[in-house]
Amino acid sequence: MNHENYSADYIRDILRSVKTIALIGASSNEVRPSYFVLKYLLDKGYDVTPVNPGLAGQDILGRRVYATLKDIPHAVDMVDIFRSSSAAAAIIDEALSLPVLPKVIWMQLNVRNDEAAARAEALGIKVVMNRCPKMEYGKLSGEWGWVGGNSGLISSRRPRLHESGKVQSLGLGLKR
Known about the structure:
By secondary structure, this protein is an alpha/beta fold. 29% of the residues lie in helices and 14% in strands. It has a single domain (8-133), classed as 3-Layer(aba) Sandwich (Rossmann fold).
């Protein structure tokens, strides 16, 4: 896998296929990126579980916070890592030891660990590094253009609203 350039289809497939996400490094601070990514993904209909040992047992946006991945009482489709590149290896190793493996390991902007990514990919897990699912969703849905961003995509399709009627979805039948 080329971890420098992900195709729009690769990212779209991931964002369409996952339903449950563990957000590692979640913050209760409303100005932290992990907080607004958590809020955004919840608004898009994903079932997001925050993970932060310092906040375990508390709630963020109505979601129970867990100390570790293994503490989450249900399987997750995607592990979204808001930690340093060096911390990512241990998180990925923990994900690889879960009874049900996630489909996707996603490392946020500036987070990259090629060795750990290779271990996950060897088990058939899709990996994304140095990307933000909120930003990628926005690019694919057309929201990115609302703030003057260039999604790199050209389409004649009319944007579709999310079923909540508030924000755009990825279109093409994304159901939550």
